[in-house]
Write a structure and sequence with these properties.
Blueprint: H1 2-11, E1 31-36, E2 44-50, E3 58-62, E4 80-86, E5 95-97, E6 102-106, E7 113-119, E8 137-138, E9 142-145, E10 153-154, E11 162-167, E12 173-175, E13 179-182, E14 186-191, H2 194-198, E15 202-205, E16 209-214, E17 217-224, H3 232-249, E18 258-267, E19 276-279, E20 283-290, H4 294-308, H5 320-323, H6 336-353, H7 359-373, H8 382-387, H9 403-418, H10 425-435, H11 447-454, H12 459-466, H13 475-480, E21 484-495, E22 501-505, E23 510-515, H14 521-526, E24 533-537, E25 540-541, H15 547-557, E26 563-571, E27 577-585, E28 588-599, H16 605-615
Parallel strand pairs: 1-11, 17-18, 18-20
Antiparallel strand pairs: 1-2, 2-7, 3-6, 3-10, 4-7, 5-6, 8-9, 9-15, 11-14, 12-15, 13-14, 16-17, 19-20, 21-28, 22-23, 24-25, 24-26, 26-27
Helix pairs in contact: 3-4, 3-6, 4-6, 6-7, 6-9
């Protein structure tokens, strides 16, 4: 057995030190890739690729211009340098760079190997503009290998299998959903095609991991925390209930064998503004500021809840545009509302159905999405916003997480209306998943007809009006069917608190005033200014975690004319913070509440039945 292992390693030209030349046997079926994480030069690592045998005179090598999930132009080829193509004797072939992401290789029948250096996006000399969870890290303490930032493909050959050979520092562990053979110094992963390579990130660092079996799948949480303020075990504790609830919601069994949650943290001193997550079919990458406390883990829980549901859409349910994604110039699907919006809706629905949320919390979440949706163009149909998300409607993309989630709720309630509450969105998704699954696809232009055939004739008009058209959903009727009162606007009297816009200063750990453009009379009486940082509000310490609760108590317990004091920190002319107490008398005003959702006082039996079927409460 030891002799066999040695033969295998020598065949690939790698010994356990990772220092031998990479010279595997070339075949006409697959790619071989080698990256040595021990050899970092100026924040760059070298990638060596032996492609399948090419039987044409020239071939293009591509790095991803666009990837699924961000739906933005990233141009990962701009981080590539010293690109070379060689024959089996090491002689360089002629190469012409066509643009940022494409290289033409001439004499391709002789092509044996290409190599190039890759700079990471996090330490790029110029701002990359890349959404951080879709970025790459090359650091002595952690390597975040979003593989689309390191590995490309030969045009016309992206459906060939890949073998990834990664030499790693001693003590490092590569967390990923990819299958492979791991050793102390060299990991070997396999993937059936480039889509799977791009879709499976790897986080290398000294391991901090936690695992849990969920619905027959192994879920791994891996955390890189520079100062060890957060850890994988606590993160897993927080997400475990959501994962279990998701498995129950999806029928008890998940359509994957392994799922990886990779959490890459940065210190607050190095904090930027691009936090969040990038979903993959069987994993997700979270890029987070590192700070201890429930708020961090709650964010991980909420983000993971969303990303985890991508195992349904688009892993199991997708159109031809996802199944054969063009990483250079993709044709966009009409159904990002399904891939992102329904996924977002499900991530919250599953929590209310399993008691993680109560009804009021769930309604608050949906209300926030309705309010956010008001900031986007209501006249753009969901299908058109999706189809042209890279061009005309690029600024509407974030609305898929708002209006898309509302559309998911509306679709759920509409289906239940026609089925006497017995058939909902989850039933539709399970049927679509069983019909199509990960290895096939529906035709993009036929989805609404397919759903209509599978469900009820009335659904076709519903899709035409609200998805292909821009008619607003009748939320009064839809929510009313489940015993929920809905009002688009409602005027109510309330003590006012300033109506300033607030942010957070990570360096001082204080809530700060960011916007005073719509400040009310009380805020002007206090004299709040942009840049003021709140220390105490009416004698109570202001914290980011407790600020909302503090204001709620202020509204509840304060009467008109009461004395109010706010202790702030304000910069002087030399830029130094000085504490100052602002004083004013409480003012009664009116508040226009938008998208008011309230549980009906006396719902009918039918409404109670619908609510129970919908949110299990």
């Amino acid at each position: 057995m030891k002799k066999l292992n040695l033969i295998i390693l020598l065949t690939f030209g790698i010994i356990t030190s990772g220092l031998a030349q990479f010279e595997p046997f070339q075949n006409d079926k697959s790619y071989s890739i080698y990256m040595n994480l021990n050899k970092v030069v100026e924040d760059k690592i070298k990638v060596e690729m032996v492609p399948p045998i090419i039987r044409q005179d020239s071939v293009e090598f591509h790095m991803a211009r666009i990837i699924p999930g961000t739906y933005d132009i990233e141009n990962y080829g701009r981080f590539i340098s010293e690109f070379k193509a060689m024959d089996s004797k090491g002689k360089e072939l002629k190469v012409k760079k066509l643009d940022l992401n494409r290289w033409m290789i001439y004499g391709a029948k002789k092509l044996y190997k290409i190599d190039y250096w890759v700079e990471d996006t996090y330490d790029s000399e110029e701002p990359s503009g890349i959404f951080q969870p879709a970025g790459t890290s090359i650091d002595k303490d952690a390597f975040l290998l979003n593989n689309f930032g390191f590995i490309g493909y030969m045009d016309g050959f992206k459906h060939r299998p890949y073998t990834l050979n990664i030499a790693k520092p001693s003590g490092f562990y590569g967390s990923t959903a990819l299958q492979g053979e791991l050793s102390d110094t060299l990991d070997v992963f396999t993937a059936n095609n480039y889509f799977i390579v791009h879709d499976n990130p790897i986080l290398y660092c000294v391991p901090d991991t936690a695992t849990k079996m969920v619905g027959g799948a192994e879920v791994i949480v891996s955390v890189y925390s520079p100062t060890k303020k957060v850890n994988a075990a606590t993160a897993m504790e927080k997400v475990a209930d959501v994962l279990d609830a998701a498995a129950v919601y999806l029928g008890g069994t998940l359509p994957v064998d392994k799922y990886a949650v990779l959490v890459y943290c940065v210190t607050t001193q190095n904090a930027g503004g691009s936090y969040g997550a990038l979903e993959h079919h069987t994993s997700t990458v979270l890029y987070m500021p590192e700070f201890a406390g429930d708020r961090f883990y709650s964010s991980v829980k909420d983000i993971t809840s969303h990303e985890f549901f991508h195992i349904v859409t688009p892993l199991n349910i997708h159109s031809e545009h996802i199944a054969n994604f063009d990483f250079i110039d993709p044709t966009m699907s009409q159904h990002i509302w399904l891939y992102e919006g329904v996924t977002e809706y499900n991530s919250h629905l599953v929590q209310v159905r399993n008691g993680i949320y109560d009804t009021d919390k769930f309604l608050d979440v949906m209300k926030s999405k309705m309010i956010s949706n008001d900031g986007f163009d209501e006249n753009i149909p969901l299908t058109k916003a999706s189809e042209f998300t890279l061009t005309f409607f690029k600024d509407q993309y974030f609305n898929f997480y708002q209006k898309g989630a509302i559309a998911g709720m509306a679709l759920d309630l509409e289906l239940r209306k026609h089925s006497d509450s017995k058939y909902g969105l989850v039933d539709l998704l399970m049927e679509l998943g069983a019909t199509y699954g990960a290895d096939t696809f529906f035709l993009d232009t036929e989805l609404f007809d397919l759903i209509t055939e599978m469900t009820y004739p009335e659904m076709r008009e519903f899709f035409a009006r609200h998805f292909e058209g821009s008619a607003p959903f009748d939320l009064t009727a839809l929510l009313g069917s489940a015993g929920i009162e809905y009002q688009a606007e409602k005027e109510v009297p309330r003590i006012v608190s300033g109506n300033a816009g607030y942010g957070f200063n990570f360096k001082t750990s204080r809530v700060k005033v960011d916007d005073v453009s719509e400040m009310d009379a009380f805020g002007h009486a206090l004299g709040l200014q942009i840049g003021d940082e709140l220390i105490e509000f009416n004698g109570k310490k202001v914290t980011l975690q407790g600020f909302t609760k503090l204001l709620a108590e202020f509204y509840k317990n304060t009467k008109e004319g009461d004395k109010v004091e706010v202790l702030i920190a304000r910069k002087d002319k030399k830029g130094r913070f000085k504490e100052k107490t602002l004083k004013a008398k409480a003012v009664m005003g009116t508040e226009t509440k938008e998208h008011v959702l309230k549980i009906m006082d006396n719902p009918t039996l039918e409404q109670l039945q619908m609510r129970k079927a919908w949110i299990n409460q």
